[in-house]
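Deliverable D5.2: sample structural annotation.
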Amino acid sequence: MDFDLLLIQKMKHGNENAFDVFVRKYYEEILKYCSYHCLDTSYSEDLTQETFLRFFEKLSDYRYIGKTRNYLYTIAGNLCKDSYKKKKILSEEPSEEFQNSLRQSEAADILNKITIEWALNHLPEELREVIVLYYFQELKLTEIAQTLQIGLPLVKYRIRQAKMRLETLLREE
């Protein structure tokens, strides 16, 4: 019997330990996914927690078909998309006070993350999604195809297109 199926059955019967095991199994992966869509660490943690809350709210209706991780990615992806809509546009230059409060290494790390996020945000949504799943979540091409419910050739095409666009964007930046 599949481990996820067993966990879901136990969760549907109210087994609190099963909820803990389930969250521990997927939390880091979903957090990593959300953190690449959101610069703010605490907000990405909120998105991750909201992903699990939404999954658990619909647990009684959930029918297991062997794609629990894909379903969690779908929920997290929708939450991240919603957060993009709500996100205010930040100025390109951080304030002087902010720059002075950071150490050099932290500032460089943040600048790299901002640059990457900026470049990713300038990609069409379908290209950004495959890049995040492939490079940051380290999913295999077949897993991306299953998660996004698209064909493998389309995944390969989108990755190739995204790489070309990112290269152009980063050269301009």
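Annotation notes: The chain has two domains: 1-88, 97-173. Residues 152-172 form the longest helix (21 residues).
The annotation will be released with the project's public dataset once the embargo ends.
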